[in-house]
Amino acid sequence: MTIEHLADIRREYTRDHLDETMLDADPMLQFELWLKQAIDAGLPDPTAMTIATVDEQGQPSQRIVLLKDSGPDGFVFYTNLGSRKAQELKHNNKISLHFPWHHLERQVKVCGVAKPLSVAKVSQYFLSRPKESQLAAWASRQSQPVSTRQMLMSEFNRMKQKFADGQIPLPDFWGGYLVEPHEIEFWQGGAHRLHDRFNYTKQPDNSWQITRLNP
């Protein structure tokens, strides 16, 4: 098939179905169930999620990062605080997450706000990372221009020599966020494009209202 036939690429989604009786009243528990099933299924990068932020001109931007924790309060990820996403979150902390579990014919979409994590929490995670990842955090000025890969590797090697004799400290330009959700949607592919979609919306009393959506 050539690229001219993109409109003809399609398939049926018949792997599973979803109804309200199968859902947990708590969307975070439902998410953890689906995440575990994605991990158990051996999906590549099951914790990969697309995050969307918006700049001061209203231009959305997306990128893929890894989920590093989840629980009753929300979703956690880490990043360079000089990165585009961190700079955009500084002036508008509204954020959207998307988990694309294609092989299970599932998606999860999250809308919420991103709140900075404490230095203690960030440091705890940073020190648990492989040494090479710690060095890479020091070497990269994320989202800033770099003329060649050789220059990037040169900086990596300089950091490697600098911290050769001791523990690598937490950079002051590296941090993390807790995404507190107010809306979470679970999508299960269905035959004939009649997909199952359920949207959880947080209520003023912190309970969750579940609504089935048209596909």
UniProtKB/TrEMBL annotation:
This protein's pathway: Cofactor metabolism; pyridoxal 5'-phosphate salvage; pyridoxal 5'-phosphate from pyridoxine 5'-phosphate: step 1/1; Cofactor metabolism; pyridoxal 5'-phosphate salvage; pyridoxal 5'-phosphate from pyridoxamine 5'-phosphate: step 1/1
Keywords for the protein's UniProt record, in alphabetical order: Flavoprotein, FMN, Oxidoreductase, Pyridoxine biosynthesis
Quick check: keyword Flavoprotein in the entry? Answer: yes
Query: Binding positions for substrate?
Result: R10, R11, E12, Y13, K68, Y125, R129, S133, R193, L194, H195
EC number(s): the record gives 1.4.3.5
Gene Ontology biological-process entries: pyridoxine biosynthetic process
- Assembly mode: Homodimer.
User: What function does this protein fulfil?
Assistant: Catalyzes the oxidation of either pyridoxine 5'-phosphate (PNP) or pyridoxamine 5'-phosphate (PMP) into pyridoxal 5'-phosphate (PLP).
Name used for this protein in its record? Pyridoxine/pyridoxamine 5'-phosphate oxidase
Question: What lineage does UniProt assign to this protein's organism?
Answer: Bacteria, Pseudomonadati, Pseudomonadota, Gammaproteobacteria, Alteromonadales
